[in-house]
UniProtKB/TrEMBL annotation:
GO CC entries: membrane
Organism listed in the record: Streptomyces fructofermentans
Annotated keywords: Hydrolase
Domain AB hydrolase-1: 55-302
Keyword Hydrolase tagged: yes
Domain of life, per lineage: Bacteria
Record's protein name: Alpha/beta hydrolase
Alphabetized GO MF terms: hydrolase activity
Hydrolase as UniProt keyword: yes
Amino acid sequence: MSSTELPSVPAVTVTPKVSTVRVASGEKLRSVGLPGVTLNLRSRPPARPGLPPALYVHGLGGSSQNWSALMPLLDGLVDSEALDLPGFGDSPPPDDGDYSLTGHARVVIRYLDSAGRGPVHLFGNSMGGAVATRVAAVRPDLVRTLTLVSPALPEIRAQRTAWPTALLAVPGVAALFTRYTRGWSAEQRVRGVTALCYGDPSSVTPEGFRNAVEEMERRLALPYFWDAMARSARGIVNAYTLGGQHGLWRQAERVLAPTLLVYGGRDQLVSYRMAQRAARAFRESRLLTLPDAGHVAMMEHPETVATAFRELLADTGELAEAGATGARS
Protein backbone atom coordinates (compact mmCIF):
# COMPACT_ATOMS: atom_id res chain seq x y z
CA MET A 1 0.00 0.00 0.00
CA SER A 2 1.31 3.44 -0.82
CA SER A 3 0.18 6.92 0.06
CA THR A 4 -1.24 7.26 -3.43
CA GLU A 5 -3.73 4.51 -2.61
CA LEU A 6 -5.12 6.52 0.29
CA PRO A 7 -6.53 9.72 -1.22
CA SER A 8 -7.64 12.82 0.60
CA VAL A 9 -11.42 13.24 0.48
CA PRO A 10 -13.28 16.21 1.95
CA ALA A 11 -16.06 15.64 4.47
CA VAL A 12 -19.50 16.34 3.09
CA THR A 13 -21.62 16.38 6.23
CA VAL A 14 -21.14 16.86 9.96
CA THR A 15 -24.23 16.45 12.14
CA PRO A 16 -24.96 16.03 15.85
CA LYS A 17 -25.48 12.40 16.78
CA VAL A 18 -28.73 11.24 18.35
CA SER A 19 -28.37 7.58 19.33
CA THR A 20 -29.06 4.90 21.90
CA VAL A 21 -25.32 4.37 22.19
CA ARG A 22 -24.06 5.03 25.71
CA VAL A 23 -22.30 8.34 26.22
CA ALA A 24 -20.09 8.84 29.26
CA SER A 25 -20.11 12.05 31.25
CA GLY A 26 -18.52 14.86 29.26
CA GLU A 27 -18.62 13.01 25.95
CA LYS A 28 -20.37 14.05 22.77
CA LEU A 29 -21.28 12.06 19.67
CA ARG A 30 -21.52 13.27 16.13
CA SER A 31 -21.64 11.83 12.62
CA VAL A 32 -19.28 12.72 9.80
CA GLY A 33 -20.21 11.84 6.24
CA LEU A 34 -17.45 11.00 3.78
CA PRO A 35 -17.90 9.61 0.27
CA GLY A 36 -18.97 6.00 0.73
CA VAL A 37 -18.88 5.95 4.52
CA THR A 38 -20.44 7.58 7.58
CA LEU A 39 -18.44 7.67 10.80
CA ASN A 40 -19.62 8.04 14.37
CA LEU A 41 -17.18 10.06 16.47
CA ARG A 42 -16.97 10.33 20.25
CA SER A 43 -15.22 13.39 21.65
CA ARG A 44 -14.57 15.33 24.82
CA PRO A 45 -14.42 19.13 25.09
CA PRO A 46 -10.74 20.09 25.34
CA ALA A 47 -9.59 21.41 28.71
CA ARG A 48 -8.41 24.56 26.94
CA PRO A 49 -8.18 25.83 23.39
CA GLY A 50 -5.24 24.90 21.23
CA LEU A 51 -4.44 21.45 22.61
CA PRO A 52 -2.99 19.06 20.02
CA PRO A 53 -5.53 16.59 18.64
CA ALA A 54 -5.64 12.88 19.45
CA LEU A 55 -7.51 10.12 17.62
CA TYR A 56 -8.30 6.69 19.07
CA VAL A 57 -8.96 3.54 16.98
CA HIS A 58 -10.60 0.48 18.56
CA GLY A 59 -10.08 -3.21 17.88
CA LEU A 60 -12.10 -6.05 16.35
CA GLY A 61 -15.57 -6.16 17.89
CA GLY A 62 -14.90 -2.97 19.84
CA SER A 63 -16.02 0.61 19.51
CA SER A 64 -15.09 4.14 20.49
CA GLN A 65 -16.46 3.35 23.97
CA ASN A 66 -13.32 1.29 24.59
CA TRP A 67 -11.45 4.58 25.10
CA SER A 68 -13.91 6.23 27.50
CA ALA A 69 -11.84 5.34 30.57
CA LEU A 70 -8.60 6.75 29.14
CA MET A 71 -9.77 9.90 27.39
CA PRO A 72 -10.76 11.94 30.47
CA LEU A 73 -7.34 11.25 32.01
CA LEU A 74 -5.76 13.02 29.04
CA ASP A 75 -8.06 16.07 29.04
CA GLY A 76 -5.27 18.49 29.87
CA LEU A 77 -2.87 17.01 27.33
CA VAL A 78 -4.82 16.49 24.10
CA ASP A 79 -8.07 17.22 22.33
CA SER A 80 -9.54 13.70 22.28
CA GLU A 81 -11.68 12.10 19.61
CA ALA A 82 -12.42 8.39 19.14
CA LEU A 83 -14.05 6.91 16.05
CA ASP A 84 -16.19 3.88 15.36
CA LEU A 85 -14.73 2.09 12.36
CA PRO A 86 -17.27 1.29 9.61
CA GLY A 87 -19.60 -1.51 10.70
CA PHE A 88 -18.69 -1.14 14.39
CA GLY A 89 -20.09 0.89 17.26
CA ASP A 90 -22.59 3.27 15.74
CA SER A 91 -20.99 3.58 12.29
CA PRO A 92 -22.90 1.82 9.49
CA PRO A 93 -21.10 -0.50 7.07
CA PRO A 94 -19.01 1.04 4.28
CA ASP A 95 -20.75 1.26 0.93
CA ASP A 96 -18.03 -0.80 -0.77
CA GLY A 97 -17.99 -3.53 1.89
CA ASP A 98 -14.23 -3.11 2.36
CA TYR A 99 -13.25 -4.28 5.84
CA SER A 100 -9.60 -4.91 5.06
CA LEU A 101 -6.90 -3.29 7.17
CA THR A 102 -6.10 -1.12 4.18
CA GLY A 103 -9.77 -0.15 3.95
CA HIS A 104 -9.91 0.78 7.62
CA ALA A 105 -6.63 2.72 7.33
CA ARG A 106 -7.99 4.53 4.29
CA VAL A 107 -11.05 5.62 6.31
CA VAL A 108 -8.87 6.97 9.14
CA ILE A 109 -6.73 8.92 6.67
CA ARG A 110 -9.73 10.27 4.81
CA TYR A 111 -11.22 11.51 8.05
CA LEU A 112 -8.01 13.18 9.21
CA ASP A 113 -7.50 14.82 5.83
CA SER A 114 -11.07 16.05 5.63
CA ALA A 115 -11.14 17.34 9.21
CA GLY A 116 -7.74 18.98 9.00
CA ARG A 117 -6.88 17.62 12.45
CA GLY A 118 -3.51 16.15 11.59
CA PRO A 119 -0.94 15.60 12.77
CA VAL A 120 -2.55 13.76 15.69
CA HIS A 121 -1.47 11.69 18.63
CA LEU A 122 -2.74 8.38 17.24
CA PHE A 123 -3.87 5.54 19.53
CA GLY A 124 -4.79 2.01 18.47
CA ASN A 125 -5.81 -1.19 20.23
CA SER A 126 -5.55 -4.68 18.72
CA MET A 127 -6.85 -4.45 15.12
CA GLY A 128 -6.89 -0.69 15.61
CA GLY A 129 -3.19 -0.93 16.47
CA ALA A 130 -2.49 -2.58 13.13
CA VAL A 131 -4.57 0.07 11.38
CA ALA A 132 -2.73 2.85 13.22
CA THR A 133 0.64 1.30 12.32
CA ARG A 134 -0.30 1.33 8.64
CA VAL A 135 -1.52 4.93 8.84
CA ALA A 136 1.68 6.07 10.54
CA ALA A 137 3.82 4.25 7.98
CA VAL A 138 2.18 5.60 4.82
CA ARG A 139 1.22 9.06 6.09
CA PRO A 140 3.84 10.17 8.61
CA ASP A 141 2.64 13.76 8.16
CA LEU A 142 -0.58 12.84 9.99
CA VAL A 143 0.97 11.34 13.15
CA ARG A 144 2.73 13.14 16.02
CA THR A 145 3.09 10.12 18.29
CA LEU A 146 1.81 6.57 18.13
CA THR A 147 0.43 4.64 21.12
CA LEU A 148 -0.33 0.97 20.49
CA VAL A 149 -2.11 -1.21 23.04
CA SER A 150 -1.71 -4.91 22.21
CA PRO A 151 -1.39 -4.21 18.46
CA ALA A 152 -2.48 -7.06 16.20
CA LEU A 153 0.81 -7.55 14.37
CA PRO A 154 1.60 -10.89 12.70
CA GLU A 155 2.61 -13.80 14.89
CA ILE A 156 4.04 -17.03 13.50
CA ARG A 157 2.54 -19.07 16.32
CA ALA A 158 -0.63 -17.50 17.65
CA GLN A 159 -1.92 -18.46 21.08
CA ARG A 160 -4.62 -21.13 21.10
CA THR A 161 -6.99 -18.72 22.79
CA ALA A 162 -6.76 -16.49 19.69
CA TRP A 163 -7.73 -19.26 17.24
CA PRO A 164 -11.52 -18.82 17.55
CA THR A 165 -11.20 -15.17 16.54
CA ALA A 166 -9.03 -16.08 13.56
CA LEU A 167 -11.53 -18.76 12.53
CA LEU A 168 -14.15 -16.06 12.02
CA ALA A 169 -12.18 -15.21 8.88
CA VAL A 170 -13.08 -18.55 7.31
CA PRO A 171 -16.10 -18.19 5.00
CA GLY A 172 -19.21 -19.67 6.59
CA VAL A 173 -17.82 -19.90 10.13
CA ALA A 174 -19.55 -16.71 11.30
CA ALA A 175 -22.92 -18.00 10.09
CA LEU A 176 -22.26 -21.38 11.73
CA PHE A 177 -21.26 -19.72 14.99
CA THR A 178 -24.37 -17.54 14.89
CA ARG A 179 -26.58 -20.61 14.59
CA TYR A 180 -24.64 -22.47 17.27
CA THR A 181 -24.89 -19.61 19.76
CA ARG A 182 -28.43 -18.54 18.93
CA GLY A 183 -29.57 -19.40 22.45
CA TRP A 184 -26.82 -17.50 24.21
CA SER A 185 -27.92 -14.42 26.10
CA ALA A 186 -26.16 -11.09 25.79
CA GLU A 187 -24.99 -11.58 29.37
CA GLN A 188 -23.36 -14.91 28.50
CA ARG A 189 -21.63 -13.35 25.51
CA VAL A 190 -20.29 -10.44 27.55
CA ARG A 191 -18.95 -12.81 30.20
CA GLY A 192 -17.12 -14.71 27.48
CA VAL A 193 -15.65 -11.56 25.94
CA THR A 194 -14.64 -10.23 29.36
CA ALA A 195 -12.90 -13.49 30.26
CA LEU A 196 -11.03 -13.38 26.95
CA CYS A 197 -10.02 -9.70 26.97
CA TYR A 198 -9.39 -8.83 30.63
CA GLY A 199 -6.45 -9.98 32.68
CA ASP A 200 -8.74 -9.87 35.72
CA PRO A 201 -12.41 -10.14 34.70
CA SER A 202 -13.48 -9.49 38.31
CA SER A 203 -12.19 -5.93 37.97
CA VAL A 204 -15.18 -5.03 35.76
CA THR A 205 -17.67 -3.16 37.93
CA PRO A 206 -21.34 -4.22 38.06
CA GLU A 207 -22.27 -0.99 36.29
CA GLY A 208 -19.65 -1.57 33.62
CA PHE A 209 -20.93 -5.10 33.08
CA ARG A 210 -24.54 -3.91 32.77
CA ASN A 211 -23.48 -1.27 30.26
CA ALA A 212 -21.62 -3.88 28.23
CA VAL A 213 -24.66 -6.15 28.19
CA GLU A 214 -26.87 -3.31 26.95
CA GLU A 215 -24.36 -2.52 24.21
CA MET A 216 -24.14 -6.20 23.23
CA GLU A 217 -27.93 -6.41 22.95
CA ARG A 218 -27.98 -3.33 20.74
CA ARG A 219 -25.27 -4.57 18.44
CA LEU A 220 -26.60 -8.10 18.11
CA ALA A 221 -29.78 -6.56 16.72
CA LEU A 222 -27.85 -4.97 13.87
CA PRO A 223 -28.21 -6.99 10.66
CA TYR A 224 -24.56 -6.47 9.70
CA PHE A 225 -22.95 -7.27 13.07
CA TRP A 226 -21.51 -10.69 12.22
CA ASP A 227 -20.65 -9.71 8.67
CA ALA A 228 -18.52 -6.80 9.92
CA MET A 229 -16.83 -9.09 12.45
CA ALA A 230 -16.10 -11.85 9.93
CA ARG A 231 -14.87 -9.58 7.15
CA SER A 232 -12.66 -7.57 9.49
CA ALA A 233 -11.18 -10.79 10.93
CA ARG A 234 -10.52 -11.90 7.37
CA GLY A 235 -8.85 -8.55 6.74
CA ILE A 236 -6.48 -9.14 9.65
CA VAL A 237 -5.59 -12.65 8.47
CA ASN A 238 -5.04 -11.42 4.91
CA ALA A 239 -2.79 -8.61 6.16
CA TYR A 240 -0.70 -11.18 8.05
CA THR A 241 0.09 -12.96 4.76
CA LEU A 242 1.44 -9.88 3.01
CA GLY A 243 5.18 -9.61 2.58
CA GLY A 244 7.57 -6.99 1.33
CA GLN A 245 6.82 -3.32 1.80
CA HIS A 246 3.14 -4.07 2.48
CA GLY A 247 3.89 -6.34 5.44
CA LEU A 248 2.92 -4.94 8.82
CA TRP A 249 6.32 -5.58 10.40
CA ARG A 250 8.03 -3.83 7.48
CA GLN A 251 5.64 -0.93 7.89
CA ALA A 252 6.35 -0.83 11.63
CA GLU A 253 10.01 -0.28 10.74
CA ARG A 254 9.00 2.68 8.55
CA VAL A 255 7.14 4.51 11.33
CA LEU A 256 8.87 7.80 12.17
CA ALA A 257 6.66 8.91 15.06
CA PRO A 258 7.77 8.30 18.67
CA THR A 259 5.90 5.15 19.71
CA LEU A 260 4.57 3.87 23.02
CA LEU A 261 3.94 0.11 23.05
CA VAL A 262 1.70 -1.39 25.74
CA TYR A 263 1.51 -5.16 26.26
CA GLY A 264 -0.34 -7.20 28.86
CA GLY A 265 1.14 -10.28 30.48
CA ARG A 266 -2.25 -12.01 30.56
CA ASP A 267 -3.25 -11.12 27.01
CA GLN A 268 -4.96 -14.14 25.42
CA LEU A 269 -5.20 -12.60 21.93
CA VAL A 270 -1.84 -10.89 21.33
CA SER A 271 1.11 -12.76 22.76
CA TYR A 272 3.17 -11.07 25.45
CA ARG A 273 6.27 -12.51 23.80
CA MET A 274 5.75 -10.16 20.82
CA ALA A 275 6.53 -7.11 22.98
CA GLN A 276 10.29 -7.25 22.50
CA ARG A 277 10.00 -7.80 18.75
CA ALA A 278 7.72 -4.77 18.49
CA ALA A 279 10.14 -2.67 20.55
CA ARG A 280 12.90 -3.55 18.08
CA ALA A 281 10.74 -2.93 15.01
CA PHE A 282 9.53 0.57 15.84
CA ARG A 283 12.63 2.75 15.56
CA GLU A 284 11.79 5.30 18.28
CA SER A 285 9.84 3.23 20.77
CA ARG A 286 9.36 2.71 24.46
CA LEU A 287 7.76 -0.36 25.97
CA LEU A 288 5.27 -0.57 28.85
CA THR A 289 4.62 -4.12 30.01
CA LEU A 290 1.80 -4.77 32.46
CA PRO A 291 2.03 -8.33 33.84
CA ASP A 292 -1.53 -8.35 35.20
CA ALA A 293 -3.22 -6.77 32.18
CA GLY A 294 -5.04 -8.52 29.39
CA HIS A 295 -5.85 -7.34 25.88
CA VAL A 296 -7.38 -3.96 26.75
CA ALA A 297 -4.95 -2.25 29.11
CA MET A 298 -6.47 1.17 28.40
CA MET A 299 -9.69 -0.13 29.99
CA GLU A 300 -8.09 -2.15 32.78
CA HIS A 301 -5.28 0.21 33.76
CA PRO A 302 -6.12 3.60 32.22
CA GLU A 303 -4.18 5.59 34.83
CA THR A 304 -0.98 3.66 34.09
CA VAL A 305 -1.39 4.07 30.33
CA ALA A 306 -2.13 7.78 30.78
CA THR A 307 1.02 8.23 32.87
CA ALA A 308 3.14 6.47 30.25
CA PHE A 309 1.66 8.66 27.52
CA ARG A 310 2.42 11.79 29.52
CA GLU A 311 6.02 10.60 29.91
CA LEU A 312 6.21 10.03 26.15
CA LEU A 313 5.09 13.61 25.54
CA ALA A 314 7.54 14.96 28.11
CA ASP A 315 10.50 13.07 26.67
CA THR A 316 9.73 14.04 23.07
CA GLY A 317 9.05 17.71 23.80
CA GLU A 318 5.35 17.36 22.91
CA LEU A 319 4.25 18.07 26.48
CA ALA A 320 5.96 21.46 26.54
CA GLU A 321 4.55 22.22 23.09
CA ALA A 322 1.00 21.40 24.23
CA GLY A 323 1.39 23.67 27.24
CA ALA A 324 2.78 26.48 25.14
CA THR A 325 0.01 26.12 22.58
CA GLY A 326 -2.62 26.27 25.28
CA ALA A 327 -0.99 29.31 26.87
CA ARG A 328 -0.94 31.18 23.54
CA SER A 329 -4.63 30.47 22.81
